[in-house]
Specification:
Length: about 220
Amino acid sequence: MKRLVSYFYPITHKKILSEHNGLLELTLVNGQKVLDSTNANYSYGSLQRILEKGLGEIDLNKVSSALILGLGGGSVIKSLIDKFSYKGIIQIVEIDKIVIDIAKNEFDIQESDNITISNMDAFEYVKYCSSFFDLIIVDLFIDNKVPLTFYSQEFLDNLSKLLTKTGSILFNAGINTNDKEERNQLIEYFKVNNFNATVFEKVQGTNTLLIAKNYR
């Protein structure tokens, strides 16, 4: 009955307080469970459509290893596997243990031979990681803002070093005009460091997406 009613108006299923992300809500919308923060969709709503726009611009047939920074409810994993038929390795990094538990318990995101979840800070992960990836997805938000450390040159330098020679970065770079100066610096970083950088503004009316393809 709740699922049917949710086609007419959203129904809050559960509220969970997180130290890192504040109040998170699981809500039924049009029969589908979504994960939201106070001011933003974290998974299975507009965010999923936003990242699918970016994934559609990348030749995933040439991708065998993907690094996802920021888990949310795991909708980008569902998109990769179910919509784009991706069968390669997926390494996930998420700082918030509560978010990991939500993804596992509410959205059935489970570790497997191909899927690994690391509970740690993405900044530290890229600093010390020695693996290389064909695709890196950066979706690092606290509510509706990207923490400024993920616009920093140190983070971007370390991130870039993890790409294979023809790898791509899909960076969810912000909502509307939040941190506009930092987003411009982010875009400029890739343009002056021998990447083929493409920017999509106001995807789904809100988000800036950056796709940086490595041709160094």
